[in-house]
Every structure is written in C-alpha cells, then in structure tokens.
Amino acid sequence: FGMVPQENVASVWQTVASWGLHNMGQYGAFVYLSALSGSYYAPLHAVPDDGSAVITALAKCDHDSWCSEIMQDNATMTRESWHDGTYSHPWGSGAIVGFVWGILGVHQTSPGYASFIIRPKLGSLQYAELTVPTLRGHITIKAQPGALDVNIPCNTLATICLPRSSRDTLASNFSTRLFLDGVGIASIHSAGNICTASPVSCGADGVVRKLRASSDPVESPIYT
C-alpha cells in the first residue's frame, strides 16, 4: 500500500523474512506468506527474492509446519492449526497463498481478474503448475526456468513474465529477449522478472500462450 518507501523495501522485506514461519505460527502464516509473496503491493514494489523464502516456509518439516501436520498427525486436510484445533478449517490453508501469490506470482490487477499479472518466482524448483478458477474462466499455468505456458481466459488481459529462478539468470539478464508463441516481443523488467511490455489475451481458439527467452542476439529459443 505504499507505506514503505521503495528504497527501504529490501531491508524491511529481509527483516520480515528473517522472522521465520515458526515465529508467526499457524494463525500468522497467511499474513507472513502474503508478505513474502508481495501480496497486494506486488504491482508496486519489487520483492527482493527469487521465491526461495516462500519455498523454505512451505517445505520445511520441523514441528511448526504443514509437513509435520501430515507426518505426525496423519492429516489429510488442513487443520485449524498444525497440531491443534478443529480437524478441517480454512485457517490452516495459508500455504495456498504462498503457492499462488508467491511461487506462481498470480495477482489480479483489476476486479474479477479482468486483468492480472503472472510473475513466477521458482527459487530452486524445476517445475510448478497451477490452475486458478476465476469468474472469467480458468487460468492454467505451467512454469519452469526459462519457460512459461499460460492458458489465458479470452475475456481477460494478462501481463506474463519469465519465471525468476535460482537455476538461471535469464530473468535478470538485461540482454534477454522475450518470445511469445515464437515471435519476438517488447519486454520490461519488473520485480526481478522480465515481462511482456503490454498485456496479452488468449491465443487463437483459446490455445496456450508460450513465453520463452533467449540471451543470444541472433538465435530464437527452441519451443517444446
């Protein structure tokens, strides 16, 4: 919401990240993961992370974790808290925030997903896939280092970005060129990602849009 000046965002974010999920607890997990994911201020500020902090919070397996909830309590759905409370409760589903807003970087930029941005931050992950149901249709995303496939509902506009990853530097390389469905397009750097300069709509007949990149000034990327 613009409360933190841009020049202080990195240090404030590092402080919040250092708190760790264990200090926030199950009831603070939603807010904590929202902060790590950029949440509502994502279109305004660059979150100084490649997704590793969110992955650490989601995948850790100590006592204060969803992993321990599954391993120690044989949970098959999220509880009110990791080891206490009611046995089926939306309060425990904060992990979804970390995955949707954080790792896949999906944020609506106008009501009802009339427009949205997809800014993946994969960290060390090799692949992530997600379907987001909206009033305008399902948004299907498949992301891996150097590649993003998106099914965009035809009555929406999306700004799509090359996944940021600890496995490659394409997203942060200012010589990287973007290709959408095999055609070179204008791009901008945004929050550590490289994104389409203009929003895009669905493909012809609703086909998946394929975003690729190349750091070679001549060669185009190979599509699969």
What does this structure look like?
With 224 residues, the chain is α+β, with helices and mostly antiparallel strands. 25% of the residues lie in helices and 25% in strands. It is built from five helices and 13 strands. The strands form four sheets. The protein has a six-stranded antiparallel beta sheet with strand order 4-5-6-13-9-10, with no helix packed on it. The protein starts with 5 loop residues before the first helix and ends in a 10-residue tail after the last strand. The model has no long low-confidence stretch (mean pLDDT 86).
Structural shape: globular
Radius of gyration: 18 Å
Percentage beta strand: 25-35%
Strand order of the largest sheet: 4-5-6-13-9-10
Helix content: 10-25%
Mean pLDDT value: 86
**Count of runs of 4 or more consecutive helical residues:** 5
Structural class: alpha+beta
Major sheet size, sense and barrel closure: 6 strands, antiparallel
Poorly predicted segments: none
State the total count of DSSP E strands. Answer: 13
End-to-end separation: 40 Å
Order of helices and strands: HHHHHEEEEEEEEEEEEE
